[in-house]
Write a structure and sequence with these properties.
183 residues, 3-stranded antiparallel sheet, alpha+beta, globular
Amino acid sequence: MGNTKTQLRFFSVPEWQKEEKYLREQHKNGWAFVRVSGLGVYHFEKCVPQDVVYQLDYNADSTKQPNEYIQLFRDCGWEYLQNYAGYSYFRKAACEMGETEEGIFCDDASRLDMMKRVFVGRMTPLLIIFLSLIIPQMFIQSHSQFPESRAVFIFYCVLFAVYVIAFIQFGVRYWKFYRSVHK
């Protein structure tokens, strides 16, 4: 068996917690995360199985002052791994975390702030595409007389459903977390 492996996995925009859990489980099974590339291509190296916490931070501005941004987390003991599609990847051995330390976020307000950054950085462009392309095309194709318009209409209906599911999924997660912070 080789010392490296590659896996194809897809996590939607609001599923960064599932991605963190996936990376942690891989490390527990002896595969240290190296990087993600392409559309969900995860690269791992063989390692000693260990409980390592992986954390993602969405901060599109992190590339403007990368040294200061990375140093902020290093000062707290987090190892910086990479920046990919606006997300910065960090890890830290679970045994090095204090009893009250939850991760790279010190409180719920910081987590909520990250969710707002995800919305602005990821969901807003999707919303613009949805409103300016998908809905108008569905309307145009539904009223078109060309034979291939039916297939194109079905394609846009599928896109419509995918986008609505993504919006609802993110909205529900955001709302639940928002309500838990503002009790």
